[in-house]
Amino acid sequence: MGIHSAKPTDGNPWALQYSLSKELSSPVNVTYACPHCDATSRTQFTAETRELACQHCDRQLAVPRDAIDGRQVRRCLVCPSTDLYVRKDFPQRLGVALVGIGIVGSSIAWYHADLLWTFGILFATALADVLLYALVGDALMCYRCNALYRGVEEMDVHGQFDLETHEKYRQHAARMKNTSTTGL
Questions:
Q1: Which is nearest to 140 in space by CA: 9, 29, 57, 38?
Q2: Which is it for the CA torsion 149, 151, 155, 160, positive or negative?
Q3: Which of 129, 174, 149, 43 is nearest to 86 (CA)?
Q4: Residue 77: exposed, middle, or buried by beta-carbon count in 10 A (0-12, 13-18, 19+)?
Q5: What pTM was computed for the model?
Q6: Would residue 33 be called left, alpha or beta, if left means φ above 0 and alpha means ψ between -120 and 50 degrees?
């Protein structure tokens, strides 16, 4: 995020009003698995972007014209899906590792009959989890191809994760895989 202007407001010299400029704000990008080579690629894009280029196989993916509106993503740029959801932009493995460390550490303290350390470790890991949840930003993710969009605006129009929608795409992928292996 960049500062475009800073000036005192309401007569308070400590209260500064910051307005963000689009040139200085965080870049909008998508991380996706290339449908041609399955390699993970990360590409920046704008509203004028009409193709995404894989960094590994140099194949071009056409971007639908109605997919991007300014810094908003209306539909997936990689696949034809319009089903996207908002999630925390945080590695899930790191979160699970944090919980695991809390469980193991508190269990060891419990084994040694140190009640203060047991609950201290549990509360410390819970506090770390809450702080990470509060500090980490959101990202937009596609149900169908798992493309991850960072830096986009107005993500809330897509909503949070919906298990029913996820299951629909998971079953569709399983049927497609089954069809391709059986040769039908």
A1: 29
A2: positive
A3: 149
A4: buried
A5: 0.72
A6: beta
The answer as to whether 124 is a domain residue is yes
Tell me the residue range of the domain where 124 lies: 92-134
Amino acid, res. 45: F
Token couple for 87:
């999630």
Alpha-carbon radius of gyration of the chain: 22
In-domain check, residue 38: yes
Calculate the alpha carbon distances from 78 to 35, 143, 150 in Å: 8, 12, 14
Q: Which residue has the higher pLDDT, 123 or 11?
A: 123
Task: Give me 91's structure tokens.
Answer: 């590695």
- Number of domains, the chain: 2
Question: Is residue 119, in this structure, part of any structural domain at all?
Answer: yes
pLDDT per residue as tens digits for the range 116-170: 999 999 999 999 988 988 999 999 999 999 999 998 888 888 999 999 999 999 9
Q: 3-class secondary structure for 30-91? A: EEEECCCCCCEEEEECCCCCCEEECCCCCCEEECCCCCEECCEECCCCCCCCCCEEEEECCC
The CA distance from 184 to 178, in Å, is 9
- Phi, psi (deg, nearest 5) at residue 51: -145, 145
And the tokens for 133?
């949840």
pLDDT digits (tens, 9 = 90+) for 17-33: 333 333 335 678 999 99
